Automatic annotation (TrEMBL):
Chief place where the protein resides: membrane
Catalyzed reaction equations: Fe(II)-heme o + 2 A + H2O = Fe(II)-heme a + 2 AH2
PANTHER family xref list: CYTOCHROME C OXIDASE ASSEMBLY PROTEIN COX15, CYTOCHROME C OXIDASE ASSEMBLY PROTEIN COX15 HOMOLOG
Transmembrane regions: 16-38, 59-79
Topology within the bilayer: Multi-pass membrane protein
Gene Ontology biological-process annotations: heme A biosynthetic process
Subcellular locations according to the entry: Membrane
Gene Ontology terms: cellular component: mitochondrial inner membrane
Cofactors, names only: heme b
Superkingdom of origin: Eukaryota
Pfam families the record matches: COX15-CtaA
Organism name: Nymphaea colorata
Entry protein name: Uncharacterized protein
Amino acid sequence: EPVSEYVEPRVSAYRLAAHLTSAFVIYCGMLWTGLSVVMPQPPTGTIDWVRGAAKVRRFVIPVSILVGITSVSGAFVAGNDA
């Protein structure tokens, strides 16, 4: 039986990472659009509410960046025999 290079399916890590990143971008865009439809105006609140939202935002952005980097770097090692 001839040996074929297509015995084990392989996907380029770059293509996998690009596909995963585009999926995240599309999903975030859809979520942003959906939330904009549900809540078109930002809520007005007391100064305490605004301070609380600023504290949460200070942590949400770095955590979101770390999750994104971890997810995309996982795509680069997904097909490797590590």
